[in-house]
Amino acid sequence: MAIKTRKYSTDGKREMTIDEFKRWLKKFDSDKDGRISRNELADAIRVTSGGWFTKRKSKHIIRSADGNGNGFIDDNEIINLAEFAEKHLNVRILYL
User: Fold this and answer.
1) Rounded to 5 degrees, what are φ and ψ at 69?
2) Do residues 38 and 57 touch, judged by C-beta distance below 8 A?
3) CA within 13 Å, CB half, 88
4) Residues in Cβ contact with 60 at an 8 Å cutoff, skipping those fewer than 6 apart
5) What residues form DSSP beta bridges with 73?
6) Backbone phi and psi for residue 56, each to the nearest 5 degrees, phi listed first
7) Which residue in 87, 85, 72, 88 sits closest to 5, CA to CA?
8) Pick from 21, 30, 17: nearest CA to 72
9) pLDDT at residue 18, as a whole number
10) For 64-67, which contacts have Cβ atoms below 8 Å and span 24 or more sequence positions?
């Protein structure tokens, strides 16, 4: 379930709309509760970029994007996660 993007921008970042980002992220909501947990986010990171320490990365990302501190990313916090992805995950989110 790689991030499917429209294209790469001139600076090499993968581009997607915020709606595409939300749809992609929801694929990892394994318990279908409408929120993304640290483990679900770790699965997304593992599938997208592979690599090491996905649990640690997901914990850091959750802390950065989780506005209310409940340990989950919900619909109201997806924008925070998108902003994190733009800064740290080589993605450009298009707000169309």
Assistant:
1) 75, 20
2) no
3) 13
4) none
5) 36
6) -65, -45
7) 85
8) 30
9) 95
10) none
